[in-house]
Amino acid sequence: MKKLFSTLLMTALLCVGASANAETYTSVQQGFGGEVSVSVTIEGDKMTDVTVVGEKETIGVGSIAIEKLPGAMVNAQSVLVDGVTSATVTSTAILAGAKDCVEQAGMADTFCVAVEKTAASTEVKRYEADVVVVGGGMSGMSAALSAANSGASVFLMEKLPMTGGNAKSAA
Prior knowledge:
Blueprint: H1 2-20, E1 22-30, E2 35-43, E3 46-53, H2 62-76, H3 88-104, H4 108-111, E4 131-134, H5 138-149, E5 154-157, H6 165-170
Parallel strand pairs: 4-5
Antiparallel strand pairs: 1-2, 2-3
């Protein structure tokens, strides 16, 4: 009976000890559309989770940073990852919040380390068109439509996942 009790007590202590190692730190920063809340969970010397909430960030711009940056930080085990193009303000808020969290944990030396950059793709894609329009904002869309209506083949390039430019983010 003593042996069973000792085994149960030891198992309970191990379980409590393991869960006590995971700590979550939170920081709130100003994003593009409002507050962005960043939570970082650290277990031992590993960053196990990063959660970002920013429901007022622009859909298709800031929302992409909210979607991509947490996983990038966990995978790199660093808060010094690249931000998302066109989502500079939201990216900066997320990265600053994550840095604040690891500083709260006293782990800045562990998680504020430079991340090795991966080589860019060397794949070349070739397209042919009579007219190339760079930028899918209102002017770019008008130019592309006008050229297409005149019978030209048109290639419209846009850096964001949607067209509309500043008119889209102002809505």
